[in-house]
Each structure stands twice: as C-alpha cells, then as structure tokens.
Amino acid sequence: MKSRVCMGWLQRRPVYQDQVLKELHVEDRSSILGSMDNDEASTSGSNLEIHSGFRNTLHSSVYGFTQQNLPACKPVLTPGWVITMFLSVGFICIPIGVAALLASQSVVEIVDRYDTECIPEVFRDNKVAYIKDDSISKNCTRILKVPSYMKAPIYVYYQLDSFYQNHRRYVKSRSDRQLLYGLKYTDTASCKPEETGNGLPIVPCGLVAWSLFNDTYNFVHESVELKVNRKNIAWKSDREHKFGKDVYPFNFQNGSLIGGAKLDPQIPLSEQEDLMVWMRTAALPSFRKLYGVIEIDLDADEILTVFLSNNYNTYSFGGKKRLVLSTKSWLGGKNNFLAVACLAVGSSCIFMALLFVLLHVRNPRTFGDPTYLTLDRKSNFA
Amino acid sequence: MSGGGGRWERVRDRVRSSSSSMRGDRQTRTVRLGRVQPQAPGHRTIFCNDREANLPVKFKGNSISTTKYNLLTFLPKGLFEQFRRVANLYFLMISILSTTPISPVHPITNVVPLSLVLFVSLVKEAFEDWKRLLNDRVINSSPIDVLQDQKWESIPWKKLQVGDIIKVKQDGFFPADLLFLASSNPDGVCYIETANLDGETNLKIRKALERTWDYLLPEKAAEFKGEIQCEQPNNSLYTFTGNLIIGKQTLPISPNQILLRGCSLRNTEYIVGAVIFTGHETKVMMNAMNVPSKRSTLERKLDKLILMLFGVLFVMCFIGAIGSGVFINRKHYYLGLNDRVEDQFNPNNRFVVAILTMFTLITLYSTIIPISLYVSIEMIKFIQSTQFINKDLNMYHRESNTPALARTSNLNEELGQVEYIFSDKTGTLTRNLMEFFKCSIAGEVYGHGITEIESGGAQRSGLRIDETKKSSTAVHEKGFNFDDARLMRGAWRNEHDPDACKEFFRCLAICHTVLPEGDESPEKITYQAASPDEAALVVAAKNFGFFFYRRTPTMIMVRESHVEKIGKIQDVSYEILNVLEFNSTRKRQSVICRYPNGRLVLYCKGADTVIYERLAYGNDTIKNVSRGHLEQFGSAGLRTLCLAYRDLNSELYESWNEKFIQAKSTLRDREKKMDEVAELIETDLILIGCTAIEDKLQEGVPSCIETLSRAGIKIWVLTGDKMETAINIAYACSLINNSMKQFVISSETDEIREVESRGDTVETARFMKESVKKELKRCIQEAEHSMHTLSGNKLALIIDGKCLMYALDPQLRVTLLNLSLNCHAVVCCRVSPLQKAQVTSLVKNGARKITLSIGDGANDVSMIQAAHVGVGISGLEGMQAVMASDFAIAQFRFLTDLLLVHGRWSYIRICKVVTYFFYKNLTFTLTQFWFTFQTGFSGQRFYDDWFQSLYNVIFTALPVIIVGLFDKDVSASLSKRYPQLYKEGIKNMFFKWRVLAVWAVFSVYQSLIFFYFTTAASRNSKNASGKLFGLWDVSTMAFTCVVVTVNLRLLMTCNVITRWHHISVIGSILAWFIFIFLYSGIMTPYDRQENIYFVIYVLMSTFFFYLTLLLVPVVALLGDVIYQGLQRWFAPYDYQIIQELHRHEPEQRSRPDLLEIGTAMTVDEERTFAISQLPRETSKHTGFAFDSPGYESFFASLHGVNVPQRAWDVARRASMRSRQPRTSIR
C-alpha cells in the first residue's frame, strides 16, 4: 500500500529525484522518498499540503535517522544538575544507611574462637598430631555469656578462616548429578580425586563432601540442654532440587584418609542438611555456615555452656574456628558494612554537593562563556 | 537487454565494493602508482569463425565468476579470512586452551562469543558473495547472437568462445572484447558508451577496418576467415596492438577497432564482431583488482591498545602464577593434594604449577581482549557510511544529482582528524566549466570581460570595479561568455586583418576532436568533447559564424556565415586527412584538412611553449605582442591556447603520410613512433592568435576554505597550472591574503633562465639545486624570524614543479618539510601527478600528520591513493579519481560537511566506542582478578560460564553500537559554525593515552567496588531464616551490579540520549534479568554443575539484593560523576562550552539548506597590495588550457609504465559527466 502511494508520488516528481534514488542505491525506496519529501516540505514549505499525507511517523524517523536528526534530550552536566544529583543521592542514601545501621546494631552476636583453647595444653605445640589422633577425646567445654537479650530464633554458625572452599580444585570436585541421582549416575570424573574408594563409587563423591565439617555443639542453658534445631538450615531449593530423595550415602569416608564427617547411610541426601550447607561453597576463604537454630530467647548475662567435640582439622593449614550465635534483623545478620557504606556515600555526596556549591560561589564559572574556548587561543603554528 | 544497464552497473559496483571491503590486514603497504600492469610478452593467434582451429590453444571461457567462495571453499576460506584477525585467532587459541583440564572455564565461555562473532562476519560474507553469485548468473546467461551455419543463433554469454563471430544489437552490451568487423552504419562506424569502464557518458566512435565492412549479413560473415595476431590479455584499457590477417593481407588493428566488454552499443542498429578476449581475460575484468584498502590511524592506534591489553593480561597472569606457585601446599589437605595429584596442583613442583596456572589465568582473563570490538566497529562504520554519509542531503548536489559516496567505510573517523588537505585546482576548486572569454588575433585583443579573479584581486586592493555594461552583441551561453562587438555578427570583416580572423575561426571549427550530437541547428546542437576547453572553442567558432555541425570519419562540415559578405551562409565540407591527437608530451593537437578547393592546411593548437618552438621565422612583432597578451590572460586567471596553421603542398604531404601510415601499423612503440612522425610535419607554423578561457571557481569554495582553515586544517593547492593562475586562484579562494608573508620559490628567475639558455642540462640541474637550496635556507630563516617576532605574520609558500623536484631531494626534503609545515598555505604549481603524490607522502610520512587529498581527474589518482584519505570529486571529469578515492563528493564545499560534521562525529563516536569497550572489558576482567587473590590463586572463575560468554555479546553489546551511531556532541550546524571544534580531532583529544588512563583508573576503581562491596556486604546471614550465600550467589550479585553499572555508565558518556539509547540500555539490563530468570530456573539434562540453580530467586528474596543493587552502581558511578563534574568545571572541552552556549536552543528538526558559513571572524585584511604586485613579472609562461587534469596518465608515463593511449577515442574524457546524457554544450 505504502509503496504504491509513494510510486504515485514519484511520478509527479521531476525525473532527477528518481535518479537520485537510483544513485543512492536505496533498497527501501519509501524510506528515502519519505526523507526527501520531508526535506523539501520543511525547507520550502510550499509542498507541505500536498505531501503531508505521506509523512507518516516511519518516514520522519527514517529521515531523522539518515540525517542524524533523531529527537533526543541533551543532558548537560551543569553545576545545578551536579549539585542536585549529589544532594538527592545523599538524601536517599543516608536514611537507608541509618535504617540498615539500626538493623545491624539490633543484632546480638556472640563469637567464640575455640580452635586453640580446645586443645589441651600438652598438645598446643603439635596441634596437627592431636587432631589426627583418633584415640584422644576431642571434647571441649566453652562458657559463653549472653551480652544482651537475644530474641529467638538464635542462629548458631560455625566460622572457618583460611579455608579455601573456593579453590578451583575444590569447587569442581563434586558431582551435582550424582547428588541428585545417586549411583544411577556413574560419570563422576569431575569428583577427582575422591570419586572412588576401594574400587567402588562414593556417594556423595568429591572433595567438598569428603571434607564435610564435623565439629558438633551441644548447648546447656541453666543446666537444661538447649535444643538446637538442625532442620531447615539449607536453602529450600537445595533441599528440593539438588539432593536426591532416594539417594543414600554409599561407601562414604571409607578410605584410608578420612576428611571430615561421616554420613548416616540410612538417611537420604535430601535430608542431610549439614551436607547441603557445606556444599553450597563459600565465596571467600573466610566464611560462616549455619549449624542450627536455638528457638528460645536468651536473656542478658545468662551463661551458656557449650560442649563441643573439636574434630575438624583446621590446624594443618592454620585456620581458625569460631562458634557464632546471632540473632537476626530484617536485613539479616550483623553486618555493618552496607550500612556504613550507605552512610559514607550519602554523607560524602552531601559533602561534594556543599563543595560544589562553595566552588560555585567562590569561583563562579559562567556557563557557555566563549572565553573558555581553548583551541582558539592557541597559536596555530604546528 | 533492458535490464542490462542495471546489471553492468552492478558489476561496476561490485568491483568497487570488493576493493573497498574491509580487509585491512591483508593488503600490502605499497602505494600502487598506476593501474596498468606491464604487458606480458608473446602474442596470441586467433582463427576467426573456426572453433576447431582455436581448440589446441586453451582459451578461457566467457563465463565469469566474481565470487570469493564456492560451496566447498566457503567455510575454510571464510574462516581463514576471519582468523587473520589477531583477536579472532587469539580467541580461537583460548577456546582450544579452554577444552583442556587446566582451564577454569567451560569451553563455551570462549566459544560462544567467538562463534557469534564469526557467525555474524560469515553471514555478512556469505550474503555479499551470494549477491555476487546471482549477478554472475544473470550475466553469464544473458543471450547473445552468435554465427552458426550462416545463421545467428542465440546462446548464453558463457558459451561464447574466442574466435566466434557475434552480432550485438543497439543498446546491447558487448559480451567479450571484440574486434569490430562491420556495422549497420554505412561507413563502418559505431558509437559506444563506456560508462561502465570509466564512468564517462559521452559517446565514442569506433571504426571498423574498411576491409571487413562487408561481413555484415550472416551469409557473408560466414565467409570471413581471418586470423588475428594480437597481444596477450592485459588490463590496459586504452591500448591494443595486433594485426588482422585476411588472405595475404596484414592489416594493423588499433584500439579504434576494439569493442570492450562492459561497453554498450549506441546509435547503431547492430554490429558484427569477432571475439578476441573472453571472460576473465577481458580488459575490464583484468582491471577489477583490489585497490589496497587503507586503515585509519585510529585503528592502528587501536592495535597498540590491544597490544597493551595483552601486556596487562600478561602481568595479571604473571602475578597470579607466582601466587599460585607460592600458595600451593600440602597443608591444604582438603584440596586432596596427595601423591597422585595432577601437575597443575602438585606442590612438589611449584614451577610447573605456576606455568600451568599462567595458562589457566589466560583463559580466565581472556575477556580483557574485547572480541566483539572489531565487529561492532565495522557495523557502526558501515552504517555510518551507507546511511549517514551517502544519504546526507547536505552533501547531495541537486544540479548534478550526485549524493556523496563513501566507497570505503574504513576511514570514517579519519575524516575527523585531517590536518592537511591537498587539493587539485581544476575541477576541484574551479568548476572546470570553461567559457571562451577573450582572444587575441593577429596581435589584437578581443573581449572586454573582467574575470572573477581580477575583480576579486581588485577588491582586495581597494579598487572598485564597476560592472561594465554588456554590449548588445554580448553572448553568454554554456562555454561562451564573450563580449566584443568587433568580432560578433560578421563585424570581424572590418577588422584590420580579416584573413587572420578567418583562419582563427576555421582553426577553431576544424582542429578538434569534438562530436556533434542532436539537431544540426546552432541552437540545439550538443557537442561531445574530450575536454570542456575543446567544446568551448567549438562553441566559440559557432558564435563567430563558423558552425561545425557534422562529422563523418573523413569529413567535417562547417556552416560558414559572413565570410564572403555579411548575411551569406554556405556549407563547407573539409576533408580530414589526419588527426594528430593531443597527449601530454605533445601538448598540442593538429588536424590536416583539405579545403573543397584543394588547399591543404595543417591547423594546430596547443600550449604556448610548444607552439612558439615550432613557428616559422619572421613576424616577430605579432609573436611578441601575442606573448604579451598570453601573459595578460594568464594573470587574469585565464587558460590560454595558441593557434597556428601551415599550408602544405601535396608532395610534402604524400611523402609524410606514407611515414605516418607506416608508423601507425607498427606493433611496438607505436605511440612513440607516431609522435616522432607528427613532429616532422608540425613545423614552420604561422601563428594566428591565442584564446583565453575562463575557469570559474566552484560555488562556495572561498567560504569552505575559510571554514576549514579555521578548523585548523591547512590546505595545500597542488596544480599543473602555472604560477600566476595558481596564485590568483589561491587569492580568490582566500587561501592566501595580503597579510601573509609569501615565499616564492620559482624556477623562472633570470639567473636560472640564463643558465638554461646555455643548454647544458647537467649544469642547469646543479645550478637549480643550489639555488633551490639557497632559497629554502633563506625562507626558513625568515620564517623562523617572523615566528619569533610578535606580529607573527602567517606564512605562505609558493613553489613550482621544477624547484619542487630538487626540493624533494632527500637532502633538502627535511628543510622543505620544516618550511612548509610552518606555512599556512602552500601552493605548488606546474607539478606532475607524481610530485603531487610525493608531496602528499612527504607530509604523511615525514610529518606524521593526517592528510587528505581531493581531486577530480586522473592526474590526481596517485595523490588520492597516497594520502590517508582520498576524496574524489564526482563532477565533470571522468571517474578515475572517484574510482581511486575513498569518498566521493560532488562539490568541494561539501568537504565542510564531510569533515566537520561526519568526520568529527565519526571520530568522536568511534573513540567513545573504543574507550568504552576498553573500560567495560577491563572492569569485568578485573573483578575476576580480585577474586583470584581470594582463591589461593587457583584460577577459579568468579562468574558462571554463560555469564562470561554472554557479557560481551548480549548484555553490553547493543547500547555501545547505538552510541556509535547516534552520539553527537553538538548539532551539525553548530559543528560548522564553530569549526575550531574540529581541532579536538586533529589533536586526537579523545583517544590519547591520558584519556585511556582515566578510563582505566575508573575501571580499577569500579571493579574494586564491584568485588569488595558485594563480597563484604554478603558476609553473614542474609535472609529471614539465617541462611548464607554461597559463591554463586555472590557472583551473580556482583555480575548484576556490573551489567547495570556498565550500561548506566554508557549513558553518562552520551551527549544526546534518544529513545534508542533508552531502549538499548534498558533492554540490555532486562536481557540479563530475563536470562538469569530462565537460566537459574531450569535444569538441563547435560552435565552441568547446577551452581546457578535458583540463585536469582534466592537473591531476590532478600533485602540485601535490592540494597546492594542500589548502592553499588551509585558508589561505582560516583567517581565518574565527580570527575566529569570537575572536568567540566575546571577544564571544559570546547564542545562542552558550545553545548552550554546553545543548550536552550531546540534541536532543529530539519536542517535547512546549507548554512552559509559566516565570515564574521576573519581578520581585517590589509588591502595594501594590488593584484599587479603579484610576482607575475618574473614569469614568461602563460596559462595553458589543456593543462587540465586527466588528459592522460602523465604519471604512468613518468614511471615508464605503458602509457594508456587515448588516441582511439575521439572524445575520451567526459566533458559533461552529467547524469542526463544529452545536456552538453548547446
């Protein structure tokens, strides 16, 4: 339809324009016709009535495109704009920062490093030998004092330092297919070097699972054992989609070298939440992992006794172990970083805004002052 | 054959496009100095009309293939072409590396972007090749009548064989190179159009050998059994040597009997010809070779940037490798580093660990090399040139229907950095619209007009010239602008020497190679001439009453009026016996004709120098007076020719003619021998007088030059004209003004002439060299002196060709360069095409400045090819300059738009694109680098494979292309109003290492923010049930921040934001989210570590995600905002000031007609020098009308290459290369 209209229009044109079209090598005749039409109409104005019917939006946009005249806004970073931008960013960030800081401050956290204290004095010089010696009891007792009221749920974390869960060799030494399908899935080459033990496949295979954390904590509160809920500590998606419901540990930790915790072969992987938490590898070499949840409130100055078995070997590589009890806020656990960053950004924005205002007052630069044109001033000699 | 025209046009386009396609790296860097290949020795013998006899010699078939690939070779060859690019090859190697176990990433990470890039490039190649294939098919299967069994049989072109006799009908194309045998026209001539060969639309005559005229009808043609001995196929379009042997007779074949493939038959019912060269051996096909494509300076600098990135990559990998060697330790027992550990993690051999980690990291950090950069830039430039430059209505010339044409898209941004323009004069600065203006007959000057140059000069000197009233007899038509009642309407009969006048007019009417066309009436006739000068002279003769109206191969018909008595008209036919053609060595042209009464006369016209050498003794007064007139004309900017004649007696003529025929039929050195023979008869001439033709300035040239020089561009005029004309033109173009200090280095000084007159060439050369050296030394001292003084006059250098020859000597070259670079304007006159190229490359290579050459004729080809950017004027001359150029425009004044608007924008855009690519890849890769420190230098990847592979090709690809297309700092009209903005490009202010360093600093800053903010903020529990993030949650968070920030950062670089910016930026960010929603929502049955499964949903269920997504881009961009704010405040770029000045003006929705550039900012000229004070007294030379460019490849002759001879085409050069074929001089 459109092309017919345009051709009709073409016939009323002097010949030369038709030739231009050929010359311009335009496939899309209508587009250039539109553009020429537009041009003529706008420059002479005389043909406006005749051709206005053809100037639909497509034409004008193609015209604007080829003539590089598309409608556009031209943001110019004027001092007003800069100051307004800084101020508005500042006024957005500071309240958020305050809110986040309050949230973070409301979190009560107890951190207890126990890796050294839990080793008997005699073994302090050779921690590795101690931890590797199965015959020595690894039990240890820690006393924690609640600094202020802790509202349930209280989360129990363990924190490891200098443990490279993100090492390339470590990260890839797992088989997610096997976790989901168990022994039915045999291609476990990615699990090296822990894909088989004694000639049999291992479920779950790989270094990640093999090095499962195996310290345990028991809390006694006013001589009553505190129940630590160890269910529902992994992400729901992990529980439901990543670990098979009828996949049971097999041939796990049977080798000569035992890396970490053993798994109950009677419980399917989808219920082994410790494993799930462990296998969601951490981003940094220093990380926390959820151990369980205490579901009662703790009052300030209450004493918690922790009976822990200090099994996990972080002594080889000098890693620290911590036990962390933490409440939560709407923003999660205790982490001032975001809040402080927000505040810092907000205040520095306001500072910058003030600075720019000051500059503007002290050293006003007229906008669009041609005397600032540098190139004209310079000598033209090469 | 109605579709034939388009088809051949396509062939030509293809030749063009294949030469201009973007294959910068495969070209050799040699400047090709001529298009003609040396001819291979040997002959070919063709038996006409006898296919069996031709069988033993395997001649090539007539089918052509211009495709680059076929089905089998497409993949290997196409891929090979692609992998010539270093970036592609690099990614291929990375891809191979990533299939090995040392790679931290899955091969898809590198294979996907590489294959996408290759796919796009290959599709483009395939599409182009497919179009070529279709074209070839159409051409190969078009029908042609061939003689078989005494009948014309129609066969497709591709079946044609050497030796076949074929028939070509009117308006048909010649399917191969033919020997012209017979024509339906009675006198064995036909007319052909050669537009597809050289772009010239005027018709040319071909004439068959008389012996073969009869073989017209099929029965008769079947009897034709000739044997053709000719040269081997070659690419010289204008030469042919060969003989036709019929029976015992040997007839020489000249180019006059050759019909080339690509030409078409006009005004002739049909012709019969024998096929000589077929298919790829035809001359037009052998000419279709690739012109070395140029690469822009910016692109070469880009290579350096890529190299630098390789360096950074190496350093990063090296640091990582050292770290990994140090880190690896058996104490990390959870890594399973027991005895059977593979080499890469074997703590016993830390060195090997480091080496292998190096490779690991190279694959990991490969994104630092922007793989899609080249493809993006190519796309951007392609659209820029095809959509913007080619369709710009501001560069479209309505009168000649010529839009601008970007023949290559490689050099768009180079246009924004040009510092030196080398311009031809004739046809470029001037219109090449020649008008007969004055003449001098027998020592008397006729014509009252004042030239533009004279009036311009007078105005400068403060004189007021009143427009003299034109007399009633004044005539102004195309080619003729003459006002003198003494000559018009037969009044010349009352002059003191009417016989001389008669000879003068007859010479004008007879001695030429013009073809009349159309109605044989003085009002309607059209002249097809080789040069506009010639046409103007014939038009002049017409107006003086000697109307040339018909030409047959042997006759010229002239309608003479007022000869016997006023008002009487008679038709006289002059028999043309010989035509001694013009060429640049001869610089003259002669015709020997016989009057009806038997009088034998040789008429000659040519340059003053050559004519004066050949004049008979005596008559010194007329000679001297005329010489004075020549000088007078010359200084008025007119182009002059001397006319002379000689009466011959028949014995002398007969004996000479024998020699001439002999020379004509020689096979070797025919041209040289013919010149020698012509020399014998062109002596003892009698001077009649001289003509003066005005060469008008093109529209808008002075203001264009003014604008360009304000843009910091220095314009040099290189012309074949003599010094006075050149200086006058330079004045008229406001290139030189009187406030300038002028240095004139001329070979026309008295001392030099004195030495020359002694005749010792060695001595002359030595003397010239010494004096040139002395002059240069003096000039440079003065220049230095004047530069140190406060007044600081601008300088101008004027040098002529002879002096230039010595000044270009390696010893003096540096001095010349030093001097000329300090000059504002340089005018080189009387230079050869070779010298034009030499001067261009002197500046290009010696000063390392970006040069642009602009010209319109064949003599500018070398200069156009030598410069960084070659611009051809697609105006009145032939197409050679355009064919060699990178850009073609219709008018010199369009340079303002091409450079100040398109060039500047392209430059700014490409700079933005490149720096942005640099930034986004560096930022992305650095986040990986920071992560490496946290992973024990193991080379663990931070991002998922697909994130990394799609980062460049999907999530950040489109917006940058939009910026490359649409960004403009100031509008087109402001670009032209403030030409000084262009200097930003000359100084390369947007792609300096400093600019890159700023980007790099912000890259580092932002990557640190991305990595450390997200990781630090993601410590500790992040959701309501105290759960924690793993590696992939954090990295997805970081990647989201990177994509959002990098896209927003792009908006910050934009000067304008159209809705396409919004669409592309928001689209890219959305694309990321859509991708991650899908990608983390599905599980694939392939062996994929389900790292990413559900990650985004986990993330988005936390406040942390939104807070981080708000905070990180703000913090990352804060630095840039502060920098930009401060920069704008304290050190604003000029364009920013202009933006501010005009920020309230609405963008003009439609650009009005060319904004006339105001000259408000020019300095007041000191009107002290009058035109008379120009150094014209020093010269005894005068302007020479035939010095116009393109007469032949003077250049090639200087190189000893086969000279393309033009003897065969009567009106070779396109006189009026207008699109409508029939609007020549009326």
Automatic annotation (TrEMBL), chain B:
The chain crosses the membrane at residues 305-328, 351-375, 913-931, 951-970, 991-1014, 1034-1051, 1063-1082, 1094-1118. It is a multi-pass membrane protein. It comes from the Eukaryota. ATP binds at residues 424-426, 534, 582, 605, 639, 719-721, 830, 836, 859-860. The active site is at 424 (4-aspartylphosphate intermediate). InterPro entries: ATPase_P-typ_cyto_dom_N (IPR023299), ATPase_P-typ_P_site (IPR018303), ATPase_P-typ_TM_dom_sf (IPR023298), ATPase_P-typ_transduc_dom_A_sf (IPR008250), HAD-like_sf (IPR036412), HAD_sf (IPR023214), P-type_ATPase_IV (IPR006539), P-type_ATPase_N (IPR032631). GO terms for cellular component: endoplasmic reticulum; Golgi membrane; plasma membrane; pollen tube tip; recycling endosome; trans-Golgi network. Keywords: ATP-binding, Magnesium, Membrane, Metal-binding, Nucleotide-binding, Translocase, Transmembrane, Transmembrane helix, Transport. Its EC number is 7.6.2.1. It is an enzyme of class 7 (translocase). The keyword Methyltransferase does not apply. CDD domains: P-type_ATPase_APLT_Dnf-like. Residues 882-1132 form the P-type ATPase C-terminal domain. This is Phospholipid-transporting ATPase.
